[in-house]
Amino acid sequence: MPVLNCLRNYIVLFLVLCGIAFxxxxxxxxxxxxxxxxxxxQFYTERYITGTAIGxxxxxxxxxxxxxxxxxxxxxxxxxxxWGLFVFGYSLAxxxxxxxxxGFDVECDIDxxxxxxxxKW
Length: 121
What we know:
Elements: H1 2-21, H2 28-34, H3 40-44, H4 48-70, H5 74-100
Transmembrane segments: 47-66, 78-97
Protein name: DUF5683 domain-containing protein
Keywords: Membrane, Transmembrane, Transmembrane helix
């Protein structure tokens, strides 16, 4: 039942963070806290597809790390843990940039772009 206790703790953390998460401008520090949940920082910055992909990757890598540890295949476990660290680092960086750039709309009006030359004699 340790898995259920861990899941319960994640659900409680999720509900606590939901109270402060979805209000107005996104804060980079809160996005970092959301990264404690797999894909949480991406969900906080409203990038749901990326959050789902990162969450699935982190959970899958965690499962295989535990599996290889129980099988005492430490080389495979260490390899999976390094990949998990990479995915977690990417998740942190992506959530931080997403929170800083939240609400920044890039708009290009092609009708207003012009090119002109002036020749002086």
